[in-house]
Write a structure and sequence with these properties.
Blueprint (H helix, E strand, L loop, with lengths): L3 E3 L30 H15 L5 H7 L7 H9 L15 H22 L4 H24 L12 H16 L3 H20 L16 H7 L14 H9 L21 H19 L4 H24 L12 H24 L7 H7 L2 H10 L1 H12 L12 H22 L3 E3 L1
Antiparallel strand pairs: 1-2
Length: 425
């Protein structure tokens, strides 16, 4: 499940932790051993949103009578705990881009810490390659839980990060100008790949898992049709690539439209985080950093939205379109600017402690939420009775069950935090 378990605070977590700890507002430039509490808190919020899926808002929303005064609230919560069908964005869609973005944000801190400890470029590169492999493996492992054989699929968040992480590390050692060039090149190149692709004349949407009623409601027409579900080059690549691995039956499509090649634009999201992390580590004063991140966020968000509205490139998270990189990246920059302003500039940190507990052990939180949620709920019912979650009635039983599971998960992470046990990859 992990590469290492440490009983001391980890100091090189590109995927988990930014380096060091600040107890007051940061100085104009950061020493290699310092870390920003805002990064842990933002990451904790992201992991909390993922873990909070267990609250099952949509199950409650389906059962609550329409006459109930809280029915609109449950519907709202359900809406933002479900992914959009194709184009657009809700809060739940921001989990994966935020996690990927924060990997990039933390990398400059990790590199600075390793260099300060005298690690050679070769050793750091080898570690980056090893980390990439472990992230890919862990993603495949989690997607295979409960199956009768290994499920070779690479759309899991960890696998997507792993596929691009070595490239991200190499870029982290380059000049900012090179990082910007790589970012723009990925967006333009990936857009061109989709824009140039058209399914063959033998293409049958139903055979690719796209039902007629779904296509009528969600598929694009005209030029944006190049980004339709399972009718794009990323889907075509997976029809070839995923069938190179042993499978129970031939791969024909991903029901959600997710694709392996999304790791390429995901790398662009991580590069955007890398650039933001560079800003946080530079010699600017704190408030200009906040302003710079906020302006960049607004520009990126507007540009991504505009490309979608103009039909140049739809905003689709499931295939990580270039416009999605810009749109979601803009939101990530605004989240980061807000957390940094509130916590590391103003020094208001106590409120975020529950989030920091989660964010300081993000890999552990990710794995625990995927592996032991059913075990926790089942154990509670075993010892307290099968109807223990019906305390507020059967309508709210899924929510009560989720609260109990979420509390146990957080307390587990809190115990690890207090005992300085951090799972590292």
């Amino acid at each position: 499940m992990s590469h290492d378990v440490s009983v001391t605070p980890p100091h090189d977590e590109a995927a988990n932790l930014a380096e060091g700890m600040l107890t007051e507002a940061p100085p104009p430039s950061l020493a290699p051993g310092q870390r920003l509490d805002s990064i842990d808190a933002y990451r904790g919020l992201v992991m909390f949103l993922m873990m909070a899926e267990v609250l099952e808002f949509c199950q409650v929303a389906e059962k609550v009578p329409g006459s109930n005064l809280l029915a609109p609230v449950w519907s709202f919560l359900c809406h933002h705990q479900s992914h959009v069908e194709w184009a657009g964005c809700v809060l739940h869609d921001m989990i994966q881009p935020s996690f990927s973005f924060l990997v990039g944000v933390a990398l400059p801190f990790s590199i600075a810490s390793r260099m300060a400890r005298g690690q050679s470029p070769g050793r750091m590169t080898a570690h980056a390659v090893w980390r990439s492999f472990l992230l890919i493996f862990l993603g495949v492992f989690l997607r295979s839980v409960g199956r009768d054989r290994t499920n070779f699929t690479f759309e899991d968040t960890l696998s997507q990060i792993g596929l691009g992480y070595t490239f991200l590390f190499l870029l982290g050692r380059c000049r900012v100008r090179t990082q910007w060039i790589a970012f723009v090149a990925i967006l333009i190149g990936y857009w061109g790949l989709f824009a140039a692709y058209t399914p063959g004349t033998n293409y049958v949407p139903e055979a690719a898992g796209v039902k007629a009623d779904w296509a009528q409601q969600y598929n694009f027409t005209g030029f944006p049709a190049h980004w339709n579900k399972n009718a794009n080059p990323a889907w075509a690549f997976d029809v070839w690539f995923l069938n190179l691995f042993p499978r129970a039956r031939r791969f024909e499509f991903n029901g959600g439209g997710y694709a392996t090649l999304s790791f390429i634009p995901t790398l662009a999201t991580m590069i955007l985080g890398l650039l933001a992390g560079g800003v946080l580590r530079n010699s600017w004063k704190p408030r200009p950093k906040v302003l710079g991140l906020a302006i960049a966020g607004i520009v990126s968000l507007t540009l991504g939205w505009g490309l979608g509205e103009l039909g140049v490139c739809p905003v689709v998270k499931r295939i990580w379109t270039p416009s999605w990189v810009l749109y979601s990246g803009g939101l990530c920059l605004l989240f980061l600017a807000t957390f940094y302003l509130v916590m590391d500039v103003q020094g208001w940190k106590i409120w975020a402690f529950p989030l920091q507990v989660i964010g300081a052990n993000s890999i552990a939180a990710y794995c625990l939420s995927h592996l032991i949620e059913p075990f926790i709920a089942g154990s509670v019912q075993t010892h307290l009775g099968p109807h223990v979650f019906d305390i507020l009635g059967t309508v709210y039983a899924p929510f009560v069950r989720g609260c109990v599971v979420l509390a146990v998960l957080w307390l587990t992470l809190f115990w690890m935090y207090r005992n300085r046990v951090f799972v590292r990859i």
